[in-house]
């Protein structure tokens, strides 16, 4: 029961008690008064009638009856009786004084009047003629008493109603600060730090509001300090302060997760080297050298924002490395030429005497090593340094892979959409505590001419030809249909959306229409975007999440740790879970800084009521270490490989998930 209702009930009860007490006192006093008045009136009437009868002839019954009738006709008396000595009796009696009931029967029983008969002797010439008995009629008293009670009940009823109305208004004013405190507390659970600026005047409420404000400020300070400490840990271990890009350790860690994880990948690795940088440093000074490195870092950061999934970093000195997802060698060569032209025309055009070269290698498949990839890229860099003309070279190798032109890729992707040749795979995510199946990450493949291509190969061309929204909608619809075909699957399906789709308003409406078509199935999906895209997609993703929340669709953040924004976005976005990037989980049992970073992220996320999931786990030592950090869910090839059908997932989960 609310405090407002308790106050109302208490006030109503108090007024009822006062009403009952007042009525009781009024009824008792009025009854006694009326009783005395009626008995006195009966006595006076008996006395006056006895005097009048004494002046009549003892044998004149007519005159005696007339005198009694005159008094009785006034209606105030219930009974008048003249008992003569001879045994005769003249009697007048009235059961009711009014045609209508003077008061309800229950009231007459509750309030009983003791009316005493008044007697007076009638004498004539010193001889006793008889006795006059008069009893007053009680209907008049009951009528007046009942009117008094009704008036008081109506009065107190209006008092009660008006008092409760004013009480509600008063309580609304008094409790408004408490309502704001409640909203403030709920906002904390929603990762919002609200401080009340309007302080109530009531001393007790003022103390409560000030205490809440102090707590909010303190919690925000704690969160900001923790987030800032975690950000510094990531920057110190992964970032290069001069260029603003990943350092060598961070780049190698991210790239190894791509090429050595055993999953299919497709992209171009580029090595960029500024020649004679040490000489430039000596001639122009260290400050000018740092300015040059920062400018190149800015160009590569813009390139990274333009091409989804790009990794860029500074290796050492004036050497930079970039990995950009692409579909084939032809696209890899185009990207290499574009990046070379962008650097040469934007930054180094003002420093014509400063030369640079780019060596690149196209990487595709499943079985690759980091050392092999860099060896090939380095060989291409040496070739670029010794060839005349262009300052960039692509490593030549016989991959045996069919190459498509941009027009052929567009035709292929359009046909796949029309014929719905998208194939889904499902990667289980297990609970860290009991290995219960928590989620299924959805991977997409396309089938073409008997060949199954992974998203790592075809997705760069999807975004290149602006098909990302159509493909995302097709994947979501396919997942919803899979859920409908397996109603016994009580698990959340996680779908990674392309940032290019999220920023499009028409995609939001189409996705909402799709969810409305499958309302039951939609409650079993979750949509997520990579963290590195938040700089351009945060507001759009927030709107999309709020749009889909009523349908039970969850929102997640993938590849946590790959972005450059401060962790304050965790408070702003309506997230339900975060997924730590696999590059932090690979080899974490040997990297104390990564373990500490994961622990910090788990603490921050749990303080905001977010689930934390870890992906890309392949070794038992890493699984054990990551589980100790407090994450909620684990996923990776250590447990299983992606399943092609939900039936396989059901069979695997029922048999008890095992590693390997």
Can you give a write-up of this model?
This protein has 660 residues and is of the alpha/beta class. The protein has four domains: 3-162, 2-Layer Sandwich (Beta-Lactamase), CATH 3.30.450; 190-238, no CATH class; 241-394, Reverse transcriptase/Diguanylate cyclase domain (Alpha-Beta Plaits, 2-Layer Sandwich); 415-654, EAL domain (TIM Barrel, Alpha-Beta Barrel). It is built from 22 helices and 18 strands. The protein has helices spanning 3-54, 61-72, 105-110, 139-189, 203-238, 248-259, 277-284, 286-306, 329-346, 370-386, 406-419, 455-464, 468-485, 499-502, 505-517, 519-522, 534-548, 569-572, 582-585, 592-607, 620-628, 646-654; strands at residues 77-84, 89-93, 118-124, 127-136, 265-274, 311-316, 319-325, 356-365, 392-394, 422-431, 437-448, 451-454, 492-496, 525-530, 554-560, 577-580, 611-614, 633-634. The strands form three sheets. It has an eight-stranded mixed β-barrel with strand order 10-11-13-14-15-16-17-18, surrounded by six helices. A five-stranded mixed sheet has the order 6-7-5-8-9, with helices on both faces. A hairpin with a 2-residue loop joins strand 11 and strand 12 (451-454). The longest helix has 52 residues, at 3-54. It is rod-shaped and about 165 Å long.
């Amino acid at each position: 029961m609310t405090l407002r209702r308790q106050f109302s009930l208490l006030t109503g009860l108090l007024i009822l008690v006062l009403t009952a007490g007042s009525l009781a006192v009024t009824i008792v006093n009025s009854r006694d008064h009326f009783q005395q008045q009626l008995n006195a009136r009966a006595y006076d009437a008996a006395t006056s009638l006895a005097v009048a009868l004494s002046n009549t002839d003892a044998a004149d019954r007519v005159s005696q009856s007339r005198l009694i009738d005159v008094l009785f006709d006034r209606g105030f008396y219930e009974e008048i009786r003249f008992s003569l000595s001879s045994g005769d009796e003249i009697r007048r009696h009235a059961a009711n004084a009014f045609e209508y009931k003077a008061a309800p029967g229950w009231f007459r029983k509750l309030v009983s009047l003791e009316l005493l008969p008044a007697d007076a002797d009638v004498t004539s010439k010193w001889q006793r003629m008889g006795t006059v008995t008069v009893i007053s009629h009680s209907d008049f008293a009951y009528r007046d008493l009942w009117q008094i009670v009704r008036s008081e009940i109506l009065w107190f009823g209006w008092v009660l109603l008006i008092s409760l109305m004013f009480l509600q208004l008063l309580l609304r004013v008094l409790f408004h600060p408490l309502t704001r405190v409640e909203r403030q507390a709920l906002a904390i659970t929603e990762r919002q730090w609200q401080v009340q600026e309007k302080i109530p005047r009531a001393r007790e409420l003022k103390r409560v509001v000030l205490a809440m404000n102090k707590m909010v400020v303190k919690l925000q300070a704690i969160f900001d300090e923790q987030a800032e400490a975690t950000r510094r840990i990531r920057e110190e271990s992964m970032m290069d302060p001069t260029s603003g890009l990943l350092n060598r350790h961070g780049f190698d860690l991210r790239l190894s997760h791509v090429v050595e994880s055993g999953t299919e990948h497709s992209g171009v690795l580029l090595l960029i080297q500024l020649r004679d940088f040490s000489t430039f440093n000596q001639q122009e000074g260290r400050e000018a050298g740092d300015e040059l490195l920062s400018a190149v870092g800015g160009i590569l950061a813009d390139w990274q924002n333009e091409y989804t999934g790009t990794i860029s970093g500074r290796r050492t000195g004036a050497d930079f490395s970039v990995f950009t997802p692409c579909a084939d060698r032809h696209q890899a060569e185009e990207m290499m030429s574009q990046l070379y032209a962008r650097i040469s025309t934007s930054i180094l055009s003002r420093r014509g005497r400063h030369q640079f070269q780019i060596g690149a290698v196209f990487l595709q498949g499943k079985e690759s090593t980091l050392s092999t990839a860099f060896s090939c890229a380095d060989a291409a860099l040496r070739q670029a340094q010794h060839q005349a003309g262009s300052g960039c070279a692509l490593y030549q190798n016989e991959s045996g892979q069919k190459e498509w032109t941009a027009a052929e890729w567009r035709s292929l992707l359009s046909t796949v959409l029309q014929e719905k040749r998208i194939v889904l795979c499902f990667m289980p995510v297990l609970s860290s505590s009991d290995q219960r199946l928590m989620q299924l990450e959805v991977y997409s493949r396309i089938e073409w001419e008997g060949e199954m291509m992974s998203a790592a190969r075809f997705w760069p061309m999807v975004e290149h030809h602006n098909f990302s929204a159509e493909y995302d909608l097709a994947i979501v619809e396919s997942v919803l249909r899979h859920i409908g075909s397996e109603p016994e699957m009580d698990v959340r399906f996680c779908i990674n959306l392309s940032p290019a789709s999220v920023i499009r308003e028409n995609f939001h409406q189409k996705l909402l229409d799709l969810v409305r078509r499958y309302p039951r199935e939609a409650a079993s999906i979750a949509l997520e975007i990579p963290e590195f895209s938040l700089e351009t997609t945060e507001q759009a993703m927030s709107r999309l999440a709020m749009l889909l929340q009523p349908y039970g669709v969850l929102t997640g953040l993938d590849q946590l740790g790959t972005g450059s924004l401060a962790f304050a976005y965790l408070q702003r976005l309506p997230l339900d879970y975060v997924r730590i990037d696999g590059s932090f989980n690979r080899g974490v049992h040997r990297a104390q800084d990564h373990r500490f970073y994961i622990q910090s992220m788990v603490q921050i996320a749990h303080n905001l009521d977010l689930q934390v999931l870890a992906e890309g786990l392949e070794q038992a030592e890493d699984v054990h270490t990551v589980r100790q950090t407090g994450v909620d869910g684990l996923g990776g090839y250590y447990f299983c490989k992606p399943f092609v059908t939900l039936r396989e997932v059901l069979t695997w989960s029922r048999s008890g998930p095992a590693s390997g």
